[in-house]
Amino acid sequence: MRQLVILAAAVLLSLPARAADEAKKPKEEPGTHVQMPFLIAPMSIDGKLQGYSYISSKLVAATPSASVEIRDKLAFIQDAFVRDVNAAPTGKATDPLDVDTAALAARLVGDARRIVGSSKVVTITFTQIKFSPLHPKATTDDQSPAETTTAPAAQHAAATPVTETKK
To answer: Could you tell me which residue, 43 or 10, shows the higher pLDDT?
Structure first.
């Protein structure tokens, strides 16, 4: 019985703390997030392609009715996003292989506002950004050219199993 009273008191004491945490969060109306298709941004250093960043994002609409309008023009917005990331670099000045999320967000929100209307798009949030190099580095399991000292014919012979047939 005593344990039950202690448990109930702990639950009642945690409710105001939980309510205070939720009050600090900005209130967004349900149905205002629009999931965007993946965006593939080329990442270059000195004009040489190094790989691609795969970016998933959500546009935040001002109202649920604005999110419906964004969904109606999703193909046009995605086309503008693809053109934008291919027209100008998306990397940071200090690290060209790291996406400059603040600058990219400003550019993409500008594209979306131009298509849908400036009062309908609030912001964009990036849910995931992954960089994939064009040429992945060798792993420790890979052999280096110095380790392979046998001739190619000898390597092929060693790799080919020999089977004998009895008559």
So the answer is: 43
